[in-house]
Structures are given as structure tokens and as C-alpha cells.
DNA sequence: TTAATTTTACCGCTATAACAGTAAAATAAT
DNA sequence: ATTATTTTACTGTTATAGCGGTAAAATTAA
């Protein structure tokens, strides 16, 4: 899905990992502004930056369609 | 997963939909270069552009982690 | 084969994401 | 309450994604 709550999902995972936005940003190798934007569901972020954040939080992406099922 | 074959997945769906890169780009409201880049697994594309392409092809995204399971 | 289509790969230009500061809200801790 | 921490929201600058145009490969159709 075009998950509009991706930001909330990431924030929740970050909190449970005991990380601040700045710590997550440093671990992911992105700027703090980018983490802030991602958690605010700003969809103009770049895919590589999102991937870097997801990797730190151990969140996997799956793509599904009628063809892949 | 940080699906490295997202490009191939999209290309496959596009082909099965009988669309050219240019047609898909127009339907998604992005430039042809963007579709080309996405199919080449260029991860610096912007999330909104990827979402627009996925929507046209009816591909859904899911995020999974030990916490969401 | 040849012709038509599509994909790949450039180009220059424009718009803006990403960045590190900074500072003010908001939240949490004492 | 006060203090410390974190988040939010700006800034100016820099790097580059995205764009249409073009043209050459590659692929497909005739």
C-alpha cells in the first residue's frame, strides 16, 4: 500500500529502539532533517534515504500485486 | 526487503500491462527519465515518483518488521 | 532483410531535496 | 516548579533529481 502512516511506523520503531531523531539520522547516514521529514510523511524524500532509515530499524519492504501473488 | 529487483518487478508489470516506458511515465505523471531510472534500480528517485508508478501498475507496498508481525 | 518501435544514454536547465546551523516550541526528567 | 532533552520549524547553501529534447543502440514488426 501507499502507506500514509509510514512516518508513524518509523517513529514508533525508533522510539522502541530508544533512539532520537538525531541518533537515527547518524546511524542511517542521513541528515536529521531527512528523518524529521520521513516521520512527517513527506513523500519527496529520496528512496535511498528512506531505505537507509528502514535498514537501521530492521523494517523490510514487500511489493505485492495480483501478478506476484 | 530492500528489494534490489524492484526495477525488474516494475518492468515486468509494465510489460504485462502492454505499456511503454513513455506511456507509463505519462500515466504516472512523471518524466520518462524517471521510469527509466526506476527500472534501472536507481535508488535516488523520489518516493512520490515511485509511488505514482506503483499506483498505475497496481503494486502495493508493505512494511514488515518483528514489531509489526 | 528493412522499417518501426522502444530503450538506453546523453545534454542543459530548473526545481528542490538534503544538509548543518540555529532557535523556539514541545516533551520528559529532576 | 526548573532543567534537560527532544522535536519542530525555520534559514542559506550545495548537490542533484527531474524534466524534455535529442540521438544512437537495441528490440520488435513487416
Structure report:
Chains A, B: It comes from Flavobacterium sufflavum. The structure is a homodimer of 69-residue chains. With 69 residues, chain A is mainly α. Chain A has one domain (6-57): lambda repressor-like DNA-binding domains (434 Repressor (Amino-terminal Domain), Orthogonal Bundle). Chain A has 4 helices and 1 strand; from the N terminus they run H-H-H-H-E. Chain A has helices at residues 6-16, 21-28, 32-39, 47-56, and one strand at 60-64. In chain A, helix 2 crosses helix 3 (32-39). The longest helix of chain A has 11 residues, at 6-16. Chain A is globular, with a radius of gyration of 12 Å. Chain A binds chain B through residues 1-3, 6, 9, 12-13, 16, 43-48, 50-51, 54-55, 57-68, and chain B through 1-3, 6, 9, 12-13, 16, 43-48, 50-51, 54-55, 57-68. Chain A binds a DNA duplex (30 and 30 nucleotides) through helix 3.
Largest interface, with counts of residues having CB < 8 Å to the other chain, equals: A-B, 30 and 30 residues
What does the oligomeric state look like here? homodimer
Number of strands of chain A: 1
Stretches of chain A where pLDDT falls below 50 for ≥5 residues? Answer: none
What distance lies between the first and last C-alpha atoms of chain A, to the nearest angstrom? Answer: 15 Å
What Rg of chain A is obtained from the alpha carbons, in whole angstroms?
Answer: 12 Å
Number of helices of chain A: 4
In CATH, the topology of chain A is named 434 Repressor (Amino-terminal Domain)
At the fourth CATH level, what is the homologous superfamily of chain A? lambda repressor-like DNA-binding domains
The whole-number mean of residue pLDDT values of chain A reads 94
Instruction: Report strand % of chain A.
Output: 5-15%
Provide the helix percentage of chain A: 40-55%
Largest sheet report of chain A: none
Helix-strand pattern of chain A: HHHHE
Q: Estimate the global geometry of chain A from the Cα principal axes.
A: globular
The chain-level structural class of chain A is mainly alpha
| Structural domains of chain A: how many | 1
Question: Can you tell me the CATH class of chain A?
Answer: Mainly Alpha
Named CATH architecture of chain A: Orthogonal Bundle
